[in-house]
Amino acid sequence: MVSSTFRTNAVRALMLGAGAGLGLASGALAQAGDQQAAAAPASVNSSQSLRLPQNPQVFGQAMPSVVKATAIVNGDVITQTDVDQRLAFMAIANGGEIPSGEIDRLREQVLRNLIDEMLEIQAAKTEKIEVKQSEIDRTVQRVAENAKKTPEQMADLLASQGSNIKSMRRQIEAEIAWQRLQRAKIESGVSVGDDEVKAVLDKLNASKGTEEFRISEIFLSATPATEAQTLDNANKILAQLRNGASFAGYARQYSESSTAPVGGDLGWVRPEQLPASLAAAVRQMDAGAISNPIPVGGGFSIIAIQDTRKILTADPRDAVLALKQVSINFPKGTSKATAEPIVARFAEAARNIGGCGGAERLASTFHGEVVTSDQVKMRDLPPALQRLMLPMQVGQATQPFGTLDEGVRVLVMCGRDEVDSTAPSYDDVYNQLNEERVNSRARRYLRDLRRDAVIEFR
Q: What CATH number does the domain located at 316-417 have?
């Protein structure tokens, strides 16, 4: 679609150019005929004949900037507009503006991402893999619902920030196409033997009580020729992450690993399952830490430790909770002095809530509201709330927390199910080994697509 649009515009430009040339030639011939018996006059500014006003009043909206090709990938065009809109989309996804000093570097990265997406879509089409518009519609619907918007409101938001819903749809199409291509071309050729699964289970049982880590990764590929530039890019990404940027958001946009669509999440792994350089770094890191760029085969990795736990050992943070949240809100502009006595009474009432059944009565007393949520993993709560809830019993409420602007709330524990700490099942281990091999082969497959592609930069 993009390529056909580009070609149409090019043809249209040629037609307009030919017409303008004919018009100028006809005018010159007419002027020559009128002046056959006269001396040649001084050259006249051709715009004078149009009688254009010096201070024109302009109506309507300005035309968009000229759409020109940035790259042509196997005949399909990626325009500068595509890059600008994806850059704006990335800024929205990361919750703010992009620092001016980072724009040029990020623009190059966005272009590389768009090239990869184009290659993934093209490869899927070659294998007769079709992504229907209705499938993309459903994903857009889910994304919009997560943002508490309708798809139309999401489109308006993107447009207001200089992006376009088409940019989101293209990224979704590439992700779906790539996942299906992996299943068709890679997963079918990956095999995991019974002896391999048994060996992992034996190691797990032998390592009971040792620590494992929930890890996320941003992988940037490099060759000997591009190593210095890639390392520089990795350090710039790291600076943004340490300034509070979303690791998952940056992984989706920049990581060249097949885990990019899930924010770089590698799941729970033990150091010995990782390459030696990553394993050494992980053993020195605490939960919440982000590593410096680490040299690995084929490039550099930045890793973040999301959480830690001990293998086959009961951890109270693995408990699954049933909760009720009681929240009270204050009118805008309420002073701290006015709110504090109310919050103090709210805290006292929460201490004597009388079990989960008292949540509605507490909300009614303080004109608040109740939200019920089941199947909440203790580990998924913010660390500060985990510390509050670890010693709590069913029927108790937390201390009040929140802000005057966003509301003050308490969580009431209605149920607490401890998770069995036995070894993972055969299927769990099989699926993890299979996924690791698929990810490795997918990375090589995309590298081969890049190598074989005909890419022209404009």
A: 3.10.50.40
